[in-house]
Amino acid sequence: MLTSQRKKAILEALARDGQVVAKALADAFGVSEDTVRRDLREMAGEGLLQRVHGGALPASPATADFAQRQSIESEAKRAVAKAAAEMVGEGQVVIVDGGTTCVQLARYLPRGLRATVVTHSPSIAIELVDHPSIEVVVIGGRLFKHSIVTVGAAALEALSHIRADLFFMGVTGVHASAGFSTGDLEEAYMKRALAAHAAETVVLASSDKINAASQYKIGEIAMASTLVVERNTPAALTDPLAAAGVSVVRA
Fold first, then answer.
1. What is the CATH number of the domain that holds 148?
2. Which of 90, 108, 173, 176 suits a disulfide with 214, CB 3.0-4.6 Å?
3. What is the mean pLDDT of residues 108-114?
4. Does 215 lie in the same domain as 129?
């Protein structure tokens, strides 16, 4: 079997099964595990998959920076954001992550809502300037320009006195066995810390991020109570997540 044929078969297996195991691939192709591992390394370098111990997972396509992602407005993204905004109750303290869907969430919060929004995203804070009854608490730190959020020791320290009702989290990867992930190490630490300071974590995810993984793990699927997805997300993608105990809301 040619290298190109093996790689095509690997991508097909990833799309079908959600993961591949190097030993099983080697047996199926009749080649050594070293050959399969080389294929996986090359494919990972091309951004086609995410390598993990013993095999690989589908790679998250969410690699564009904030400005590029913000230019991609979709009805599905707005629906996810609107459904999440409707979960915020009167008088609650909520943490809102960075990201373009979370910016949409902020836009959908009712102008008369009385609540407190804690965020490490300047973009979220700016969206809420004209909401007279929403108190905005901005977490400072080093600005991670790719996502326009603050990260680092100062941001983590600022969280120590906060106890929120909800945390709305954005991710780049959602996978039943690999959990939630993102493409930056410090962002992963920050998201994990934000989740630890909220009673419940709600994850907002477009369908292209489900059954995919990025380089840095945030936590297991069980860290979230709710996953808000696009209405037309295939059940084959969401059923394993629901089986893991997450409530799936279709927007």
1. 3.40.50.1360
2. 173
3. 95
4. yes
